[in-house]
Amino acid sequence: MTPARVLVFGFAAVILLGALLLALPQATQDGLGLPFLNAVFTATSAVCVTGLVVVDTATTFTYFGQWVILLMIQVGGLGFMTFATLFAMILGKKITFKERLLLQEALNQVSVEGIVRLTKSVLQISFAIETMGALILTLRWYSDFGWSKALYYGIFHSISAFNNAGFDLFGNFSSLTAFVGDPIINITIMLLIILGGLGFIVLADLLTPQKKLRLHTKIVLQVSGALILFGAVFILIMEFANPKTLGPLPIGTKVLAAFFQSVTTRTAGFNTIDISNMYETTLLSMIVFMFIGASSGSTGGGIKTTTFIAIILSVLSTYRNNLHVVLKGRTIPREVIAKAWAITTSAIFLIFIVLSILSHSENSDLQTLLFEVTSAFGTVGLSLGITPHLSVAGKIAIALTMFIGRVGPLTLAFFLTQKRNKLSTQIKYPDERIMIG
Amino acid sequence: MTPARVLVFGFAAVILLGALLLALPQATQDGLGLPFLNAVFTATSAVCVTGLVVVDTATTFTYFGQWVILLMIQVGGLGFMTFATLFAMILGKKITFKERLLLQEALNQVSVEGIVRLTKSVLQISFAIETMGALILTLRWYSDFGWSKALYYGIFHSISAFNNAGFDLFGNFSSLTAFVGDPIINITIMLLIILGGLGFIVLADLLTPQKKLRLHTKIVLQVSGALILFGAVFILIMEFANPKTLGPLPIGTKVLAAFFQSVTTRTAGFNTIDISNMYETTLLSMIVFMFIGASSGSTGGGIKTTTFIAIILSVLSTYRNNLHVVLKGRTIPREVIAKAWAITTSAIFLIFIVLSILSHSENSDLQTLLFEVTSAFGTVGLSLGITPHLSVAGKIAIALTMFIGRVGPLTLAFFLTQKRNKLSTQIKYPDERIMIG
Ligand SMILES: [K+]
Ligand SMILES: [K+]
Fold first, then answer.
1. In which domain of life is the source organism classified (chains A, B) (predicted)?
2. Of B234, B353, B359, which to mutate for an interface test with A (greatest number of A Cβ within 10 Å)?
């Protein structure tokens, strides 16, 4: 069995297990358990760290159900292979070369060397960040909810934010709209989302002080920063006077909310204003930001920031009649550019096919459907409100889109890099690989 | 001045001249002349052979106004440079190398050799086809309208169809809906559209009996055939029972109408059923077909059939981990693939930007706007009915989109092929150039 298949079947197995648990009577407050299709949808949404929900997380599930969801988020976010290694390490088992290959795939890494060390630091860094986030949120919510609930909410939302999952416990599909003007909550959640979305390789690179930053790290930081800033400025300008979104808020809160709504497209899925009331033009821009998504090997989704910059540079090179795509004095290898095009085209094709299906099966307008499908593909979790009202066909289509969105780019990238460097390429500048998808 | 600039300024000059003529009191039946913005829009639509109309052609214009429009369609369709050569030949003027370069650009050809001969045969073939079309239509309409009107309608609609312009004289924005079940009119118009959309090089290749068909010709014929067939089958299945489109028609007419509506996306703009009543899913597929459009160097628009097949093959090659894009035992050169990506990405970018502007300036839903923008970019001319109701900003945006859609791919391709073959490429199979954009 190829690593790609192991990953697909592994993710599917975790989803199935989670769905079975959510279907148990203990999982829901009505004592009936979740109907199976809704259970599969919710489990897929959790494992694929999307956050699209057909039932309200806070009011539908018991503590047991919510912990199952949180566990699936953690497993899905950090990757079940990372978890498998963790267990292997805990049990002192030897890690085989084949298992290392699986890990390489799970983390979208190009070298098998040091993969176990990397996995360990992935887990250490992740838990450290999640713990800090949980602490800050707990301290902030203590006065509102008391220690016990504050701690529970702190842990849940810190893990949900760092894993770009977007699940929340505030009820009535309201996400974080109650805290639109709260700087501590906004900044903490934003930092968790951003750190989770940069990718483990970037985090590890940033935490290794002695050496120069990789090209990949520099690109990810610059592109992510530019996307967040551009998105926030665009949202601020477009929605400034919208009486249903930013309009009634004081100026400082307007800026905070604009940044939060921009950060959430990288692909967290929390929101602090009612995005279904945003103007069409703003929603169109958010669809693009969700499509681009987060960075490679992160808890986020989308085609990835590096894929986006690779295709932009490729087009600009063609405009200049230059066959080589050059970035910061390095040539991006031709097969990387080809991968970027393949990923982007496959994503557009997938979104179009699912959109066509939904245009037939659902009663919503095209914009609402395109927003939903792009959100599912990018494992974002934002919705204009139709998720709970999806038809059976619609739920299945969206669940499959979340699954392909989460698993696809990774497995596709593996298939694509598997036999790389079999053909030499003409090189003008020294090569350096950046990660794609 | 570069050839690309000459073409842009030339097209713009023809549009401006046409707009001034349409603004004359003699041009409109109310004796007031067309308001300037509407005149510019109509002239742009005619010269760019699009067919989107803000006023009804039959009831608004006098014979003079209609002949101005027909002349602009002919100039725009065959390319004003082809016309310039025609005049040069008539006047016996020597054609300079620079003028040949301009012609090469106008026809999207890769070699300067034989360009005058090609231009002559372009004009001969075009007029021969248009004359045959006009004759058949005149004979068909004689019994309905009498000789004089039948001849006028025959000439107008033959030229409009062969040039993929989509302007009609049947009033009330009704296009050819009155003739949905008429096989002679449907088949004649379809053949004119298809022949005009294949491109002059393909027509010349087909009319030269001694030699083997070029790779380009084979690809264009196969892809065009496949697109028409697939579109027709999809429309037939989706709309079969739609009471507002194919539903009430007898089965033979259903098939005829499905084929006509498929052919019209290649990018003629006539319609025989009310497309605004089609289902969302059908309209989505038509948006894709309009985006792909017709073939290079033809009277049609869109990214072009060869561009479409080039990016599909490129993605499939990447899936198979093959750096070379191979088709029928030939390698498609790398810079051609790069051009295909650049054209497609630029087109998507343009459509998205214009869509964003319209989502702000107009009151229509996203699907209607996307259909309109794609129709304008592909110089198709189909509309769900909003063209006459566009705001001033909307009219300007759509007019610019038609202009870039018609001029852009050609000029872009010129810029891109200008310095080609400066870098050698690795070749596994013998190379053969196919045209892009
Ligand atoms: K998410
Ligand atoms: K047209």
1. Bacteria
2. B359
Q: What would the pLDDT profile of A334-378 be if each residue is shown by its tens digit?
A: 777 888 888 898 899 899 999 999 999 999 999 999 999 999 999
Task: Return d(Cα A430, Cα A418) in angstroms, integer.
Answer: 22
Contacts of B338 in chain A (CB under 8 A): 314, 317-318, 323
Predicted local distance difference test score (pLDDT) of residue A202: 81
CA distance A147 to A141: 8
- Of A1-10, A290-299, B127-136, B264-273, highest mean pLDDT: B127-136
- What one-character-per-residue DSSP string does A250-275 give? -HHHHHHHHHHHHHTTTTT---SS-G
Question: Using CA atoms, how far apart are residues B137 and B48, in angstroms rounded to an integer?
Answer: 24
CATH (domain of A338):
1.10.287
Domain that holds residue A336: 309-417
pLDDT at B417: 47
Cβ pair B294, B263 in contact under 8 A: no
Interval between CA A158 and ligand 1 midpoint (Å): 13
The residues that bridge with B332 in the sheet, in sequence order, are B325
CB < 8 Å to B285, chain A: 356
- Average pLDDT estimate for B119-132: 87
Do A379 and A301 touch, CB atoms closer than 8 A?
yes
Q: Phi/psi of residue A327, each to 5°?
A: -140, 120
Tell if the CB–CB gap between B323 and A425 is shorter than 8 Å. yes
- Joined together, the tokens standing for residue B22 give 């349409």
Q: How far is the C-alpha of A47 from the C-alpha of A93, rounded, in Å?
A: 26
Residue A26 DSSP label = G
> A47: distance to nearest CA of chain B, Å?
26
State how far the Cα of A100 lies from the Cα of A110, in Å rounded to an integer. Answer: 12
A261 is a domain residue: no
How many domains is chain B built from?
Answer: 1
Q: What are the chain B neighbours of A356 within 8 Å (beta carbons)?
A: 281, 284-285
Distance CA(A375)–CA(A373), nearest Å, equals 5
Residue A328, amino acid: K
- Indicate whether A360 belongs to any domain: yes
Which chain A residues are closer than 8 Å to B359 by Cβ? 279-281, 284
Pairwise CB contact (< 8 Å): A338 & B317: yes
Question: Which of A339, A359, A425 is facing B318, going by the closest CB pair?
Answer: A339
A333 inside domain: yes
Query: Do the beta carbons of residue A312 and residue A410 sit within 8 Å?
Result: no
State pLDDT tens for residues A265-295.
Answer: 988 889 999 999 999 999 999 999 999 998 8
Residue A326: φ, ψ to 5° = -115, 135
Q: Could you say which of B284, B315, B355 has the minimum Cβ distance to residue A341?
A: B315
Query: Do A163 and A76 form a contact (C-beta atoms < 8 A)?
Result: yes
Q: What is the Å distance from ligand 1's center to A259 Cα?
A: 17
Could you tell me the two tokens for B144?
A: 């309905």
Question: Is A374 part of any domain?
Answer: yes
Cα torsion B32, B33, B38, B40 to 10°: value is -150
- The minimal CB distance from B318 to the residues A285, A342, A422 is found for A342
The Cα–Cα gap between B135 and B151 comes to 8
